[in-house]
Amino acid sequence: MRRPETGQTLVEFALVVTFVFLPLLFGLIEGTRLVYTNNVLSNAAREGARRGSVQAGWIGQTGNGCSPTDGPAVQGPVCPSQSEFVTNVLTAANGEMVGATPLSTQSADPDHFVTVTCNGHAPSQSACATGGILQVAVAYRYVPFLPILSRGSVQLSASASMAIQ
Q: What are the extents of the domains in the chain?
C-alpha cells in the first residue's frame, strides 16, 4: 500500500527554484550586464579618440581661422586649450556611457576615468602634432547589483588609438 505524498512536489519545486533556477537566472543577467558595460567602455574610448584625433593637432593654436570655443561658430577648426581638449574628449566619451556611471578625470574619480595621451605624453601643442598617435584609455570599476553572486567588483578597461589629423 502506498502512502500519500502530498506536498512533496511543492517542496521539490521550491528547492529547485531557490537553489538552481534563480541563481542561474540572476547569474545570466549579471553576465549580460558585464558584457554590455564592457562594450559601452569600448565605444566610449573609440568615440573619445575619434573626437580627439580631429582636435589634437589644433591644441593651443590661434588664428588660422580657428573657431572660438566660447563664442559663435565660424568656418574653421576648433582650437582648444589643453584643458578644453581633455574636456572635449571626456564629453565625447561620456556621450557613449548610456546606462553607466559617467567618466571623469582620474584625480576626480579613481574608479571611472579617462586618460588622454598624445604620443605617450600629456596633451600639448608639441606632443599632439599632426601625424602622431592619440590614445584614449578608459578605466571603470563594475559593481554587480547582486554582490552575493560575485564578491566585490571588477575593474574593466578599454583603449583606442587614432592618428592625429
A: 8-163
